[in-house]
Amino acid sequence: WQTENGVLLPSLQSALPFLDLHGTPRLEFHQSVFDELREKLLERVSAIALEGKVEERYKKLEDLLEKSFSLVKMPSIQPVVMCVMKHLPKVPEKKLKLVMADKDLYKACAVEVKRQIWQDNQALFGDEVSPLLKQYILEKENILFSNDISVLHNFFSPSPKTRRQGEVVQKLTQMIGKNVKLYDMVLQFLRTLFLRTRNVHYCTLRAELLMSLHDLEISEICTVDPCHKFTWCLDACIREKFVDNKRARELQGFLDGVKKGQEQVLGDLSMILCDPFAINTLALSTIRHLQDLVGQDTLPRESPDLLLLLRMLSLGQGAWDMIDSQVFKEPKMEAELITKFLPMLMSFVVDDHTFNVDQKLPSEEKGPIPYPSTIPEAFTKFLQENRIACEIGLYYILHITKQRNKNAFLRLLPALVETFSDLAFSDIFLHLLTGNLTLLGDEFSLEEFCTSLFDGFFLTACSRKENVHRHVLRLLLHLHHKVAPAKLESLQKALEPTKQSGEAVKELYNQLTEKLELRKPSPAEATETPSMELPLPTVPTPASR
Protein backbone atom coordinates (compact mmCIF):
# COMPACT_ATOMS: atom_id res chain seq x y z
CA TRP A 1 0.00 0.00 0.00
CA GLN A 2 2.88 2.29 0.89
CA THR A 3 4.58 1.54 -2.41
CA GLU A 4 1.44 2.15 -4.43
CA ASN A 5 0.52 5.42 -2.75
CA GLY A 6 3.98 6.82 -2.01
CA VAL A 7 6.07 9.18 -4.14
CA LEU A 8 6.99 7.11 -7.19
CA LEU A 9 10.64 8.06 -7.64
CA PRO A 10 13.09 5.14 -8.03
CA SER A 11 15.94 7.13 -6.43
CA LEU A 12 13.77 7.89 -3.40
CA GLN A 13 13.29 4.27 -2.27
CA SER A 14 16.92 3.87 -1.28
CA ALA A 15 16.99 7.27 0.46
CA LEU A 16 13.96 6.78 2.69
CA PRO A 17 15.73 4.45 5.18
CA PHE A 18 18.07 7.36 5.96
CA LEU A 19 15.08 9.25 7.35
CA ASP A 20 14.20 6.21 9.44
CA LEU A 21 17.71 6.24 10.93
CA HIS A 22 17.20 9.90 11.90
CA GLY A 23 13.85 9.07 13.51
CA THR A 24 11.87 11.25 11.07
CA PRO A 25 8.35 9.85 10.62
CA ARG A 26 7.15 9.22 7.06
CA LEU A 27 4.18 11.47 7.79
CA GLU A 28 6.50 14.44 8.31
CA PHE A 29 8.29 13.69 5.05
CA HIS A 30 5.06 13.33 3.05
CA GLN A 31 3.63 16.45 4.69
CA SER A 32 6.66 18.54 3.63
CA VAL A 33 6.42 17.17 0.06
CA PHE A 34 2.69 17.99 0.06
CA ASP A 35 3.32 21.58 1.30
CA GLU A 36 6.00 22.06 -1.34
CA LEU A 37 3.69 20.81 -4.10
CA ARG A 38 0.88 23.05 -2.86
CA GLU A 39 3.16 26.11 -3.00
CA LYS A 40 4.17 25.17 -6.57
CA LEU A 41 0.50 24.73 -7.51
CA LEU A 42 -0.44 28.12 -6.02
CA GLU A 43 2.36 29.77 -8.01
CA ARG A 44 1.19 27.97 -11.15
CA VAL A 45 -2.42 29.10 -10.67
CA SER A 46 -1.26 32.72 -10.31
CA ALA A 47 0.87 32.30 -13.45
CA ILE A 48 -2.02 30.77 -15.48
CA ALA A 49 -4.14 33.81 -14.56
CA LEU A 50 -1.66 36.04 -16.40
CA GLU A 51 -0.61 34.03 -19.45
CA GLY A 52 -2.16 33.21 -22.85
CA LYS A 53 -5.44 34.45 -24.28
CA VAL A 54 -8.11 35.61 -21.82
CA GLU A 55 -10.69 32.94 -22.74
CA GLU A 56 -8.12 30.13 -22.56
CA ARG A 57 -6.61 31.06 -19.20
CA TYR A 58 -10.01 31.42 -17.55
CA LYS A 59 -11.18 28.14 -19.11
CA LYS A 60 -8.20 26.39 -17.49
CA LEU A 61 -8.99 27.96 -14.11
CA GLU A 62 -12.68 27.06 -14.35
CA ASP A 63 -11.78 23.43 -15.10
CA LEU A 64 -9.39 23.40 -12.16
CA LEU A 65 -12.09 24.88 -9.89
CA GLU A 66 -14.59 22.24 -11.03
CA LYS A 67 -12.13 19.45 -10.15
CA SER A 68 -10.97 20.86 -6.82
CA PHE A 69 -14.12 22.51 -5.36
CA SER A 70 -15.39 19.28 -3.77
CA LEU A 71 -12.29 19.38 -1.51
CA VAL A 72 -12.79 23.02 -0.46
CA LYS A 73 -13.48 22.09 3.17
CA MET A 74 -10.18 20.21 3.54
CA PRO A 75 -7.84 22.67 5.30
CA SER A 76 -4.81 21.41 3.32
CA ILE A 77 -6.46 21.88 -0.11
CA GLN A 78 -8.60 24.95 0.69
CA PRO A 79 -5.90 27.56 -0.12
CA VAL A 80 -5.63 26.19 -3.68
CA VAL A 81 -9.40 26.36 -4.28
CA MET A 82 -9.51 29.88 -2.83
CA CYS A 83 -6.59 30.96 -5.01
CA VAL A 84 -8.35 29.66 -8.17
CA MET A 85 -11.55 31.54 -7.22
CA LYS A 86 -9.58 34.71 -6.46
CA HIS A 87 -8.17 34.78 -10.00
CA LEU A 88 -11.51 34.18 -11.72
CA PRO A 89 -13.24 37.45 -12.69
CA LYS A 90 -16.58 35.63 -12.58
CA VAL A 91 -16.91 32.66 -10.24
CA PRO A 92 -19.90 30.43 -11.21
CA GLU A 93 -23.04 31.54 -9.34
CA LYS A 94 -23.57 28.07 -7.84
CA LYS A 95 -20.12 28.08 -6.20
CA LEU A 96 -20.63 31.61 -4.83
CA LYS A 97 -23.88 30.56 -3.19
CA LEU A 98 -22.16 27.59 -1.54
CA VAL A 99 -19.40 29.86 -0.21
CA MET A 100 -21.94 32.40 1.04
CA ALA A 101 -23.94 29.75 2.86
CA ASP A 102 -20.90 28.50 4.81
CA LYS A 103 -19.57 31.01 7.39
CA ASP A 104 -16.07 29.50 7.50
CA LEU A 105 -15.70 29.42 3.71
CA TYR A 106 -17.00 32.99 3.42
CA LYS A 107 -14.48 34.13 6.03
CA ALA A 108 -11.61 32.30 4.27
CA CYS A 109 -12.22 33.58 0.73
CA ALA A 110 -10.30 36.51 -0.76
CA VAL A 111 -11.78 40.00 -0.98
CA GLU A 112 -11.92 39.58 -4.80
CA VAL A 113 -14.42 36.72 -4.33
CA LYS A 114 -16.33 38.57 -1.61
CA ARG A 115 -16.83 41.50 -4.01
CA GLN A 116 -18.64 39.16 -6.40
CA ILE A 117 -20.86 38.00 -3.53
CA TRP A 118 -21.49 41.52 -2.19
CA GLN A 119 -22.48 43.13 -5.47
CA ASP A 120 -25.65 41.04 -5.58
CA ASN A 121 -26.20 41.00 -1.84
CA GLN A 122 -26.54 44.52 -0.45
CA ALA A 123 -27.60 43.40 3.05
CA LEU A 124 -24.46 41.28 3.52
CA PHE A 125 -22.27 44.11 2.21
CA GLY A 126 -24.05 46.49 4.60
CA ASP A 127 -23.21 44.17 7.53
CA GLU A 128 -19.51 44.32 6.53
CA VAL A 129 -19.43 48.10 6.04
CA SER A 130 -21.54 49.15 9.04
CA PRO A 131 -18.91 48.52 11.80
CA LEU A 132 -16.34 50.46 9.75
CA LEU A 133 -18.64 53.48 9.46
CA LYS A 134 -19.31 53.40 13.21
CA GLN A 135 -15.57 53.21 13.87
CA TYR A 136 -14.97 56.19 11.55
CA ILE A 137 -17.51 58.42 13.36
CA LEU A 138 -16.10 57.38 16.73
CA GLU A 139 -12.55 58.28 15.62
CA LYS A 140 -13.71 61.75 14.53
CA GLU A 141 -15.50 62.34 17.84
CA ASN A 142 -12.47 61.19 19.80
CA ILE A 143 -10.36 63.84 18.04
CA LEU A 144 -12.93 66.55 18.80
CA PHE A 145 -13.05 65.60 22.50
CA SER A 146 -9.31 64.91 22.84
CA ASN A 147 -7.74 66.15 26.08
CA ASP A 148 -4.86 67.68 24.12
CA ILE A 149 -5.96 71.27 23.54
CA SER A 150 -3.75 73.19 21.14
CA VAL A 151 -3.94 75.91 18.52
CA LEU A 152 -1.31 74.21 16.39
CA HIS A 153 -2.75 70.69 16.41
CA ASN A 154 -6.49 70.66 16.08
CA PHE A 155 -9.18 68.72 14.23
CA PHE A 156 -8.30 70.40 10.92
CA SER A 157 -4.50 70.02 11.17
CA PRO A 158 -3.95 66.71 9.27
CA SER A 159 -3.63 67.14 5.51
CA PRO A 160 -6.22 65.45 3.26
CA LYS A 161 -3.65 62.91 2.10
CA THR A 162 -2.78 61.96 5.69
CA ARG A 163 -6.46 61.55 6.56
CA ARG A 164 -6.99 59.23 3.60
CA GLN A 165 -4.38 56.84 5.01
CA GLY A 166 -6.72 56.14 7.94
CA GLU A 167 -7.69 52.53 8.59
CA VAL A 168 -11.38 52.86 7.69
CA VAL A 169 -10.84 54.68 4.38
CA GLN A 170 -8.15 52.18 3.37
CA LYS A 171 -10.34 49.17 4.25
CA LEU A 172 -13.33 50.56 2.35
CA THR A 173 -11.12 51.34 -0.65
CA GLN A 174 -9.88 47.77 -0.65
CA MET A 175 -13.39 46.35 -0.28
CA ILE A 176 -14.63 48.39 -3.25
CA GLY A 177 -11.63 47.67 -5.52
CA LYS A 178 -12.68 48.72 -9.04
CA ASN A 179 -16.31 47.73 -8.56
CA VAL A 180 -18.60 50.65 -9.44
CA LYS A 181 -21.66 48.84 -8.05
CA LEU A 182 -20.05 48.49 -4.58
CA TYR A 183 -18.89 52.13 -4.69
CA ASP A 184 -22.48 53.23 -5.41
CA MET A 185 -23.71 51.08 -2.52
CA VAL A 186 -21.27 52.73 -0.07
CA LEU A 187 -22.35 56.19 -1.28
CA GLN A 188 -25.97 55.17 -0.77
CA PHE A 189 -25.17 54.02 2.79
CA LEU A 190 -23.45 57.36 3.47
CA ARG A 191 -26.37 59.39 2.09
CA THR A 192 -28.89 57.38 4.13
CA LEU A 193 -26.85 57.71 7.35
CA PHE A 194 -26.30 61.43 6.76
CA LEU A 195 -30.07 61.88 6.32
CA ARG A 196 -30.84 59.80 9.40
CA THR A 197 -28.28 61.36 11.77
CA ARG A 198 -27.36 64.76 10.20
CA ASN A 199 -23.78 63.81 11.10
CA VAL A 200 -21.47 65.79 8.78
CA HIS A 201 -18.57 63.34 9.21
CA TYR A 202 -20.31 61.08 6.67
CA CYS A 203 -19.78 63.90 4.14
CA THR A 204 -16.05 63.88 4.97
CA LEU A 205 -15.91 60.14 4.34
CA ARG A 206 -17.73 60.62 1.00
CA ALA A 207 -14.96 62.96 -0.18
CA GLU A 208 -12.09 60.97 1.36
CA LEU A 209 -13.23 57.74 -0.27
CA LEU A 210 -13.39 59.30 -3.73
CA MET A 211 -9.95 60.88 -3.31
CA SER A 212 -8.49 57.60 -1.98
CA LEU A 213 -9.63 55.87 -5.20
CA HIS A 214 -8.20 58.86 -7.10
CA ASP A 215 -4.80 58.35 -5.40
CA LEU A 216 -4.82 54.72 -6.58
CA GLU A 217 -5.76 55.91 -10.12
CA ILE A 218 -8.86 53.70 -10.25
CA SER A 219 -10.27 55.32 -13.39
CA GLU A 220 -13.14 52.79 -13.60
CA ILE A 221 -14.75 54.65 -10.67
CA CYS A 222 -13.29 58.16 -10.90
CA THR A 223 -14.47 58.66 -14.48
CA VAL A 224 -18.08 57.72 -13.65
CA ASP A 225 -18.36 59.83 -10.47
CA PRO A 226 -19.52 63.25 -11.74
CA CYS A 227 -18.05 64.92 -8.62
CA HIS A 228 -14.49 63.67 -9.23
CA LYS A 229 -12.89 66.78 -10.75
CA PHE A 230 -14.74 69.15 -8.41
CA THR A 231 -13.65 67.12 -5.36
CA TRP A 232 -10.07 66.95 -6.67
CA CYS A 233 -9.92 70.74 -7.05
CA LEU A 234 -11.55 71.34 -3.65
CA ASP A 235 -9.13 68.84 -2.09
CA ALA A 236 -6.22 71.03 -3.25
CA CYS A 237 -7.90 74.08 -1.63
CA ILE A 238 -8.41 72.17 1.64
CA ARG A 239 -4.72 71.23 1.61
CA GLU A 240 -3.78 74.95 1.36
CA LYS A 241 -6.67 75.99 3.71
CA PHE A 242 -7.47 78.70 1.14
CA VAL A 243 -9.40 79.02 -2.12
CA ASP A 244 -7.18 81.01 -4.51
CA ASN A 245 -8.50 82.85 -7.58
CA LYS A 246 -7.45 80.20 -10.13
CA ARG A 247 -9.12 77.34 -8.24
CA ALA A 248 -12.15 79.52 -7.48
CA ARG A 249 -12.70 79.93 -11.23
CA GLU A 250 -12.33 76.16 -11.73
CA LEU A 251 -14.85 75.39 -9.00
CA GLN A 252 -17.25 77.98 -10.43
CA GLY A 253 -16.90 76.32 -13.86
CA PHE A 254 -18.01 72.98 -12.38
CA LEU A 255 -21.03 74.54 -10.65
CA ASP A 256 -22.06 76.52 -13.73
CA GLY A 257 -21.56 73.43 -15.90
CA VAL A 258 -24.34 71.40 -14.25
CA LYS A 259 -26.61 70.74 -17.24
CA LYS A 260 -30.38 70.65 -17.32
CA GLY A 261 -31.57 67.17 -16.50
CA GLN A 262 -28.41 66.44 -14.48
CA GLU A 263 -29.34 68.55 -11.45
CA GLN A 264 -29.17 65.47 -9.24
CA VAL A 265 -25.38 65.88 -9.21
CA LEU A 266 -25.96 68.98 -7.04
CA GLY A 267 -27.00 66.61 -4.23
CA ASP A 268 -23.58 64.94 -4.34
CA LEU A 269 -21.71 68.24 -4.77
CA SER A 270 -23.56 69.70 -1.78
CA MET A 271 -22.53 66.68 0.30
CA ILE A 272 -18.88 67.19 -0.74
CA LEU A 273 -19.19 70.87 0.27
CA CYS A 274 -20.88 69.96 3.57
CA ASP A 275 -17.68 68.18 4.68
CA PRO A 276 -16.44 70.18 7.75
CA PHE A 277 -12.98 70.39 6.14
CA ALA A 278 -14.52 72.09 3.09
CA ILE A 279 -16.67 74.43 5.23
CA ASN A 280 -13.57 75.30 7.29
CA THR A 281 -11.59 76.18 4.15
CA LEU A 282 -14.45 78.24 2.64
CA ALA A 283 -15.11 80.11 5.91
CA LEU A 284 -11.41 80.89 6.51
CA SER A 285 -11.13 82.15 2.91
CA THR A 286 -14.25 84.32 3.41
CA ILE A 287 -12.78 85.99 6.52
CA ARG A 288 -9.51 86.59 4.66
CA HIS A 289 -11.40 88.15 1.71
CA LEU A 290 -13.37 90.44 4.03
CA GLN A 291 -10.14 91.72 5.57
CA ASP A 292 -8.69 92.36 2.11
CA LEU A 293 -11.86 94.25 1.10
CA VAL A 294 -11.48 96.53 4.16
CA GLY A 295 -7.99 97.43 2.95
CA GLN A 296 -9.27 98.04 -0.61
CA ASP A 297 -12.33 100.11 0.45
CA THR A 298 -14.50 97.68 -1.50
CA LEU A 299 -17.96 96.40 -0.61
CA PRO A 300 -18.69 92.62 -0.47
CA ARG A 301 -21.20 92.83 -3.34
CA GLU A 302 -18.38 94.01 -5.66
CA SER A 303 -16.20 90.94 -5.09
CA PRO A 304 -17.05 87.98 -7.40
CA ASP A 305 -14.60 85.73 -5.49
CA LEU A 306 -16.39 86.40 -2.21
CA LEU A 307 -19.79 85.77 -3.81
CA LEU A 308 -18.57 82.40 -5.10
CA LEU A 309 -17.36 81.40 -1.61
CA LEU A 310 -20.80 82.29 -0.23
CA ARG A 311 -22.46 80.32 -3.03
CA MET A 312 -20.43 77.21 -2.13
CA LEU A 313 -21.00 77.69 1.63
CA SER A 314 -24.71 77.99 0.93
CA LEU A 315 -24.71 74.80 -1.19
CA GLY A 316 -22.77 72.91 1.51
CA GLN A 317 -24.97 74.12 4.35
CA GLY A 318 -28.09 73.20 2.37
CA ALA A 319 -26.94 69.61 1.69
CA TRP A 320 -29.24 67.91 4.18
CA ASP A 321 -32.35 69.81 3.04
CA MET A 322 -31.57 69.12 -0.61
CA ILE A 323 -31.05 65.37 -0.17
CA ASP A 324 -34.05 65.15 2.13
CA SER A 325 -36.45 67.02 -0.16
CA GLN A 326 -34.92 65.62 -3.40
CA VAL A 327 -35.31 69.11 -4.89
CA PHE A 328 -31.99 69.61 -6.64
CA LYS A 329 -31.44 73.32 -7.11
CA GLU A 330 -29.01 75.75 -5.52
CA PRO A 331 -30.40 77.49 -2.42
CA LYS A 332 -31.24 81.15 -2.95
CA MET A 333 -28.83 83.54 -1.30
CA GLU A 334 -30.41 86.23 0.86
CA ALA A 335 -29.44 89.68 -0.40
CA GLU A 336 -29.21 91.05 3.15
CA LEU A 337 -26.36 88.63 3.91
CA ILE A 338 -24.25 90.47 1.32
CA THR A 339 -25.63 93.99 1.71
CA LYS A 340 -25.97 94.14 5.51
CA PHE A 341 -24.31 91.29 7.43
CA LEU A 342 -20.90 91.21 5.75
CA PRO A 343 -20.47 95.02 5.82
CA MET A 344 -21.32 94.79 9.55
CA LEU A 345 -18.45 92.30 10.05
CA MET A 346 -16.17 94.64 8.10
CA SER A 347 -17.19 97.48 10.42
CA PHE A 348 -15.98 95.33 13.36
CA VAL A 349 -12.59 95.01 11.62
CA VAL A 350 -12.54 98.80 11.15
CA ASP A 351 -13.41 99.29 14.87
CA ASP A 352 -10.33 97.24 15.77
CA HIS A 353 -8.11 99.26 13.43
CA THR A 354 -9.34 102.62 14.72
CA PHE A 355 -9.04 101.50 18.36
CA ASN A 356 -5.44 100.37 17.77
CA VAL A 357 -4.56 103.65 16.08
CA ASP A 358 -6.21 105.62 18.94
CA GLN A 359 -4.10 103.73 21.47
CA LYS A 360 -0.92 104.83 19.73
CA LEU A 361 -1.87 108.52 19.55
CA PRO A 362 -0.70 110.76 22.42
CA SER A 363 -3.54 110.93 24.96
CA GLU A 364 -5.12 114.34 25.50
CA GLU A 365 -7.16 115.63 28.42
CA LYS A 366 -10.30 113.78 27.33
CA GLY A 367 -8.65 110.47 28.35
CA PRO A 368 -8.38 107.18 26.48
CA ILE A 369 -11.18 106.18 24.10
CA PRO A 370 -12.93 103.03 25.34
CA TYR A 371 -13.36 100.00 23.09
CA PRO A 372 -16.92 99.79 21.66
CA SER A 373 -18.81 97.38 23.89
CA THR A 374 -22.22 97.18 22.23
CA ILE A 375 -23.14 95.00 19.27
CA PRO A 376 -25.77 95.89 16.70
CA GLU A 377 -29.03 94.07 17.31
CA ALA A 378 -29.02 93.05 13.65
CA PHE A 379 -25.81 91.05 14.19
CA THR A 380 -27.42 88.91 16.90
CA LYS A 381 -30.53 88.50 14.73
CA PHE A 382 -28.47 87.31 11.74
CA LEU A 383 -26.65 84.76 13.91
CA GLN A 384 -30.00 83.42 15.09
CA GLU A 385 -31.84 83.31 11.77
CA ASN A 386 -29.36 82.88 8.94
CA ARG A 387 -27.22 79.76 8.76
CA ILE A 388 -24.51 81.17 6.45
CA ALA A 389 -24.26 84.38 8.51
CA CYS A 390 -23.97 82.28 11.65
CA GLU A 391 -21.16 80.13 10.21
CA ILE A 392 -19.18 83.19 9.02
CA GLY A 393 -19.85 85.01 12.32
CA LEU A 394 -18.52 82.05 14.32
CA TYR A 395 -15.38 81.86 12.17
CA TYR A 396 -14.85 85.61 12.65
CA ILE A 397 -15.00 85.05 16.44
CA LEU A 398 -12.47 82.21 16.11
CA HIS A 399 -10.29 84.57 14.06
CA ILE A 400 -10.27 87.36 16.68
CA THR A 401 -9.63 84.84 19.47
CA LYS A 402 -6.65 83.52 17.56
CA GLN A 403 -5.37 87.09 17.28
CA ARG A 404 -5.63 87.35 21.11
CA ASN A 405 -8.10 90.23 20.63
CA LYS A 406 -9.77 90.06 24.05
CA ASN A 407 -11.83 93.25 23.58
CA ALA A 408 -13.46 92.12 20.35
CA PHE A 409 -14.03 88.63 21.77
CA LEU A 410 -15.83 89.90 24.88
CA ARG A 411 -17.86 92.32 22.77
CA LEU A 412 -19.22 89.60 20.42
CA LEU A 413 -19.47 86.73 22.92
CA PRO A 414 -23.04 87.52 24.12
CA ALA A 415 -24.29 87.00 20.55
CA LEU A 416 -23.29 83.32 20.74
CA VAL A 417 -25.77 82.31 23.43
CA GLU A 418 -28.55 81.93 20.86
CA THR A 419 -27.46 80.95 17.36
CA PHE A 420 -28.97 79.22 14.33
CA SER A 421 -29.70 75.59 15.39
CA ASP A 422 -27.25 76.07 18.31
CA LEU A 423 -24.21 76.16 15.98
CA ALA A 424 -22.16 77.93 18.68
CA PHE A 425 -22.53 74.81 20.83
CA SER A 426 -21.54 72.37 18.07
CA ASP A 427 -18.53 70.16 18.75
CA ILE A 428 -16.41 71.48 15.89
CA PHE A 429 -16.82 75.14 16.91
CA LEU A 430 -16.21 74.42 20.62
CA HIS A 431 -13.17 72.28 19.76
CA LEU A 432 -11.64 75.18 17.80
CA LEU A 433 -12.70 77.82 20.34
CA THR A 434 -11.18 75.96 23.31
CA GLY A 435 -7.95 75.58 21.33
CA ASN A 436 -7.83 79.31 20.48
CA LEU A 437 -8.69 80.32 24.07
CA THR A 438 -5.39 78.83 25.24
CA LEU A 439 -3.78 81.90 23.61
CA LEU A 440 -5.76 84.10 26.02
CA GLY A 441 -4.63 81.97 28.98
CA ASP A 442 -3.49 84.94 31.08
CA GLU A 443 -6.93 86.55 30.88
CA PHE A 444 -8.45 83.64 32.85
CA SER A 445 -7.13 85.15 36.08
CA LEU A 446 -9.51 88.11 35.57
CA GLU A 447 -12.97 87.86 37.14
CA GLU A 448 -14.66 89.86 34.36
CA PHE A 449 -13.28 87.63 31.59
CA CYS A 450 -14.21 84.37 33.34
CA THR A 451 -17.71 85.60 34.20
CA SER A 452 -18.37 86.59 30.56
CA LEU A 453 -16.95 83.34 29.17
CA PHE A 454 -18.24 80.78 31.67
CA ASP A 455 -21.37 82.30 33.23
CA GLY A 456 -22.35 84.31 30.15
CA PHE A 457 -21.72 81.60 27.55
CA PHE A 458 -20.66 78.05 28.48
CA LEU A 459 -22.80 77.51 31.57
CA THR A 460 -25.96 78.69 29.78
CA ALA A 461 -25.94 75.39 27.84
CA CYS A 462 -24.07 72.97 30.11
CA SER A 463 -27.15 71.51 31.74
CA ARG A 464 -29.02 70.85 28.48
CA LYS A 465 -26.07 69.89 26.27
CA GLU A 466 -23.65 67.26 27.51
CA ASN A 467 -21.10 68.01 24.78
CA VAL A 468 -20.75 71.60 26.09
CA HIS A 469 -20.18 70.20 29.61
CA ARG A 470 -17.37 68.03 28.21
CA HIS A 471 -15.71 70.90 26.32
CA VAL A 472 -15.73 73.18 29.40
CA LEU A 473 -14.13 70.44 31.48
CA ARG A 474 -11.51 69.89 28.72
CA LEU A 475 -10.70 73.60 28.79
CA LEU A 476 -10.42 73.74 32.59
CA LEU A 477 -8.24 70.63 32.68
CA HIS A 478 -5.86 72.56 30.47
CA LEU A 479 -6.10 76.03 32.04
CA HIS A 480 -7.23 75.47 35.68
CA HIS A 481 -3.92 76.83 37.01
CA LYS A 482 -4.62 80.20 35.35
CA VAL A 483 -8.11 80.66 36.86
CA ALA A 484 -8.52 82.62 40.12
CA PRO A 485 -9.07 80.16 43.04
CA ALA A 486 -12.44 81.60 44.08
CA LYS A 487 -13.76 81.41 40.52
CA LEU A 488 -12.37 77.90 40.11
CA GLU A 489 -14.22 76.76 43.21
CA SER A 490 -17.58 78.10 41.99
CA LEU A 491 -16.96 76.55 38.54
CA GLN A 492 -16.17 73.22 40.14
CA LYS A 493 -19.54 73.32 41.91
CA ALA A 494 -21.40 74.42 38.79
CA LEU A 495 -19.84 71.68 36.66
CA GLU A 496 -20.47 68.80 39.04
CA PRO A 497 -22.05 65.93 37.07
CA THR A 498 -25.67 64.98 37.73
CA LYS A 499 -27.09 61.44 37.82
CA GLN A 500 -28.04 61.82 34.16
CA SER A 501 -24.48 62.76 33.09
CA GLY A 502 -22.65 60.31 30.85
CA GLU A 503 -19.47 58.42 31.73
CA ALA A 504 -17.27 60.80 29.71
CA VAL A 505 -18.38 63.83 31.76
CA LYS A 506 -17.86 61.99 35.06
CA GLU A 507 -14.41 60.82 33.97
CA LEU A 508 -13.33 64.37 32.98
CA TYR A 509 -14.74 65.84 36.20
CA ASN A 510 -12.81 63.28 38.27
CA GLN A 511 -9.61 64.12 36.39
CA LEU A 512 -10.16 67.82 37.10
CA THR A 513 -10.89 67.16 40.81
CA GLU A 514 -7.68 65.11 41.11
CA LYS A 515 -5.64 67.89 39.50
CA LEU A 516 -7.13 70.51 41.83
CA GLU A 517 -6.49 68.32 44.88
CA LEU A 518 -2.82 68.05 43.89
CA ARG A 519 -2.56 71.84 43.68
CA LYS A 520 -3.94 72.44 47.17
CA PRO A 521 -1.17 72.92 49.75
CA SER A 522 -1.19 70.30 52.50
CA PRO A 523 -2.21 71.57 56.02
CA ALA A 524 1.38 71.13 57.30
CA GLU A 525 2.72 73.41 54.55
CA ALA A 526 0.02 75.96 55.19
CA THR A 527 1.00 76.38 58.85
CA GLU A 528 4.72 76.42 58.18
CA THR A 529 4.64 79.08 55.51
CA PRO A 530 4.07 82.14 57.75
CA SER A 531 6.78 81.08 60.23
CA MET A 532 9.31 80.96 57.39
CA GLU A 533 8.41 84.47 56.34
CA LEU A 534 8.64 86.09 59.84
CA PRO A 535 12.40 86.44 60.19
CA LEU A 536 12.85 87.92 56.71
CA PRO A 537 12.70 91.62 57.67
CA THR A 538 15.37 91.19 60.37
CA VAL A 539 17.99 89.68 58.04
CA PRO A 540 20.83 92.23 57.92
CA THR A 541 21.33 93.73 54.45
CA PRO A 542 24.75 94.75 53.09
CA ALA A 543 23.74 98.43 53.50
CA SER A 544 23.04 98.11 57.25
CA ARG A 545 26.48 96.67 57.86
Automatic annotation (TrEMBL):
<dbReference type="GO" id="GO:0003746">
    <property type="term" value="F:translation elongation factor activity"/>
</dbReference>
<keyword id="KW-0648">Protein biosynthesis</keyword>
<protein>
    <submittedName>
        <fullName>Negative elongation factor B</fullName>
    </submittedName>
</protein>
<dbReference type="GO" id="GO:0034244">
    <property type="term" value="P:negative regulation of transcription elongation by RNA polymerase II"/>
</dbReference>
<keyword id="KW-0251">Elongation factor</keyword>
<dbReference type="GO" id="GO:0032021">
    <property type="term" value="C:NELF complex"/>
</dbReference>
<dbReference type="InterPro" id="IPR010405">
    <property type="entry name" value="COBRA1"/>
</dbReference>
<dbReference type="Pfam" id="PF06209">
    <property type="entry name" value="COBRA1"/>
</dbReference>
<feature type="region of interest" description="Disordered">
    <location>
        <begin position="517"/>
        <end position="545"/>
    </location>
</feature>
